[in-house]
Design goal:
The chain is an alpha/beta fold and about 400 residues long. The protein is about 30% helix and about 25% strand. Strands 1-2-5-3-6-15-7-14 form an eight-stranded mixed sheet. The chain has a four-stranded antiparallel sheet with strand order 10-12-8-13, with helices on one face. Strands 4-16 form a two-stranded antiparallel sheet. A hairpin with a 2-residue loop joins strand 1 and strand 2. The termini are far apart.
Length: about 400
C-alpha cells in the first residue's frame, strides 16, 4: 500500500508524527515540551487541562471532557509520555524523526509504546465532539511522565493524591500490546514484578587452593535451582497451547556481582533475578519457596527485594460485568476478534487496579509485530487510523454505561 504524500497526509497522522518528535526519552525526557503539546491539544478541543506536579519536575497532565451526569463515576484514559532509550546505529531511520516510508510505516520511538494511543484518545475525542456527541460519564485523559522507569514518580504517587480522588474514576483503559494476527489483545491483569538479589557468603582465600564452602559454590546452587524452575515454567508454557506468556511465572538471571581479583576467592558474591510472578500464584508461599532455595544452598545465603509488587488484581472479563460487557460488545458490533490475556510485564494499570479501579490494557494494533523497546519500532498509518475508529466506538459505549451501585 503506497502512502499519500505530505500534502494530503491525514491530519491525525501528522499530529502523531509531531508528538513522536518530542524527545521524551528516558532518563532525561523533555517533559516541558510534552506538557505544552498536550496543553495546546486541550485548548484546540475545548477541554480543561490540569497539571499535577506529583514530584519535583514530574507532572501528570489531565485533560477532561465533562459528562452530562456528574454524579456518575468517570472513564479514565491513561497513557505515558516517556519512551525508552534508543541505539541509533541499529535503526534504519532517525528514531525521533517520525519518518514515514513509501509503504506507510511510521518509524519512531514511541510509535507502539505508547504515543500512538495518546493521539488516538485525543483524535477520537475530537471526532466525537465535532459530531456534537455528549455522554453521561465524564472522560478524563491522563498523561503520566515516568511509566518506563516504574511509575514511581508518576501514577504511583498520583493515585494517592486528592486530585486523583476528585476524578472519581470508575473504569480505566491503559496500554496493551500489538498483536501480529487478525485479533486484538486486551489485558485484564498483569504479573507482579519481583527483583531479587541473592547474596552468598563463604570462605575466602588464595585462588590456587581448593577451598571448601565458598560463596561461589553456594551461589551456584541457588542459580541452578532458580534456572531449573525457569525451565519448568517455560516447558509448561510451551506444552499448553491455551496458555499465554502472562499466565506463567518467568525469571531471568540479570546480574552477577562479586570478586576483587582473579587470584582471590571472594567472601561474598551476589546474583540478581527479575521474577514476573503470575497473578494466580500465592505470593506468600512463593516467598517461602525463595527462602527454602537459599537455605538449601548452605549457610550464609540470603536474599532481599529490590522491587516487590504484592497487589495483583484481576479485572473481570465476563459479560455479567457491565464494563466488560460494554467494551467487548463494541468489538462484536465491529466484527473484530478479541484475545483476553494477562500482561506479561508491568504497566501503570497495576496502580489503578490496586486502588479498586477496574482497568483493561488495550492498544488497538493488529496485524502488527510487537516492537516496543525494539530497534526500528514502527506502526503502519492505516493501523493507527483504524485505532482512532475503534476508540470512537469504545468511548461512547463506556461513557454511556448506566448507573452502577459503585457510582454511589
Amino acid at each position: 500500500m503506497a502512502s499519500k504524500g505530505p500534502e494530503d497526509e491525514h491530519p491525525s497522522v501528522t499530529l502523531f508524527r509531531q508528538y513522536l518528535r518530542i524527545r521524551t526519552v528516558q532518563p532525561k525526557p523533555d517533559y516541558g515540551a510534552a506538557v505544552a503539546f498536550l496543553e495546546e491539544r486541550a485548548h484546540q478541543l475545548s477541554l480543561s487541562c490540569q497539571k499535577v506536579e506529583v514530584a519535583p519536575g514530574f507532572v501528570v497532565t489531565v485533560l477532561t471532557w465533562p459528562g452530562t451526569n456528574p454524579a456518575l463515576s468517570s472513564i479514565l484514559l491513561n497513557s505515558h509520555t516517556d519512551v525508552v532509550p534508543v541505539f541509533k546505529e541499529h535503526w534504519s531511520h532517525d528514531p525521533f524523526e517520525a519518518f514515514k516510508d513509501s509503504d506507510g510505516y511510521i518509524y519512531g520511538r514511541g510509535t507502539q509504546d505508547m504515543k500512538c494511543v495518546s493521539i488516538q484518545y485525543l483524535e477520537a475525542v475530537r471526532r466525537l465532539k465535532v459530531e456534537g456527541r455528549s455522554f453521561p460519564r465524564t472522560i478524563h485523559m491522563t498523561f503520566v511522565p515516568d511509566e518506563e522507569v516504574g511509575g514511581h514518580r508518576g501514577m504511583e504517587l498520583f493515585v494517592q493524591r486528592p486530585e486523583f480522588q476528585a476524578l472519581r474514576a470508575g473504569f480505566a483503559l491503559d496500554e496493551g500490546l500489538a498483536n501480529p494476527t487478525d485479533a486484538f489483545s486486551v489485558f485484564y491483569s498483569e504479573r507482579s514484578v519481583w527483583w531479587v538479589r541473592v547474596t552468598s557468603t563463604g570462605k575466602p582465600g588464595h585462588g590456587s587452593r581448593f577451598i571448601e564452602d565458598t560463596a561461589a559454590e553456594k551461589l551456584h546452587k541457588v542459580v541452578s535451582t532458580i534456572l531449573a524452575f525457569r525451565e519448568k515454567e517455560r516447558q509448561r508454557l510451551q506444552s499448553n497451547p491455551h496458555l499465554k506468556e502472562g499466565a506463567v511465572t518467568s525469571v531471568n538471571l540479570t546480574k552477577l556481582e562479586g570478586g576483587v581479583a582473579y587470584n582471590v576467592v571472594p567472601a561474598t558474591m551476589s546474583a540478581g533475578f527479575d521474577f514476573r510472578v503470575a497473578p494466580d500464584v500465592d505470593l506468600k508461599a512463593f516467598e517461602e519457596q525463595l527462602h527454602a532455595w537459599c537455605q538449601a544452598a548452605g549457610e550464609g545465603v540470603t536474599f532481599e527485594f529490590v522491587q516487590k509488587w504484592t497487589k495483583p488484581r484481576v479485572t473481570p472479563t465476563d459479560d455479567s460485568d457491565p464494563w466488560w460487557a460494554a467494551f467487548s460488545q463494541v468489538f462484536k458490533d465491529m466484527n473484530l476478534t478479541l484475545e483476553a490475556e494477562i500482561f506479561p510485564a508491568t504497566t501503570d494499570s497495576r496502580y489503578l487496579r490496586a486502588m479498586g479501579v477496574p482497568a483493561l490494557g488495550f492498544s488497538p494494533m493488529n496485524h502488527t509485530p510487537v516492537l516496543l523497546h525494539d530497534h526500528d519500532e514502527r506502526l503502519h498509518e492505516a493501523v493507527f487510523l483504524r485505532g482512532i475508529d475503534i476508540y470512537a466506538h469504545l468511548l461512547p459505549a463506556l461513557a454511556s454505561v448506566p448507573t452502577l451501585p459503585s457510582d454511589n
